[in-house]
């Protein structure tokens, strides 16, 4: 079964292509950029190119997108053309070809303002039941594309799974305050408590979704490292997150001190991936407990796949004030 992977020159697309090729599974990569993992160069915004790319495939993983870091450098129309119209072209071609599965890579950024509680309120417990309140064109475009996915599943019987992925990029944080106070590794280890996943686990979630799509028909799932935090922790997370974490992981204090690392003083949201694990049979391996085991052994907590791909960035330009601009 040939699998079409869009965005094959990007971080997730390359990861998917690497894993599929190593497993001996036929895969076709498309992207606007040439790469070792791109078989056809073109845009998902071009319906003729998309129809040619879908020809002969039995499944689609649609990872190509303009991301949050592009908000400051690309216009609204470009987000509409790539993230919404591009998704529509792929859905139409996939439905016409009667593919067995369509997996759409969305984002937890789609939740937008729902992720930020009011001052004094507990941290937000983010499940699939939370209603998105997009705060920029990136979020708007991904929510619209998710709606198209659901439409094609309901009206055209196309098996579709939407995965709202949390952070998995290796670049430093876009917030200069976070970059200034925490080493990148330290910040990303902290995020595995509540808002991050390793790229290897993100890939395995996509492949699990491919296998389950026909059975599910349509599903939307959060993909993030399993959190050790609970609803009972939410109030304290806003005011003293370190105390909560140390209650769950007493050994963290010594292990962090040995590296000169710090826990975040406050956590404002917790992504819950229990539904993805239950419905997809997804078994992520890289969580905060894994981080602590690696610190104990003096090992890198990132997966081999994450280390292999490294940082790819989002722009060809180098910016003076950070890894990318944020609008």
UniProtKB/TrEMBL annotation:
Residues 3-215 form the NAD-dependent epimerase/dehydratase domain. InterPro entries: Epimerase_deHydtase (IPR001509), NAD(P)-bd_dom_sf (IPR036291). Pfam families: Epimerase (PF01370). It comes from the Bacteria. Pathway: Bacterial outer membrane biogenesis; LPS O-antigen biosynthesis. Belongs to the NAD(P)-dependent epimerase/dehydratase family. This is NAD-dependent epimerase/dehydratase. It comes from Sinorhizobium fredii (strain NBRC 101917 / NGR234).
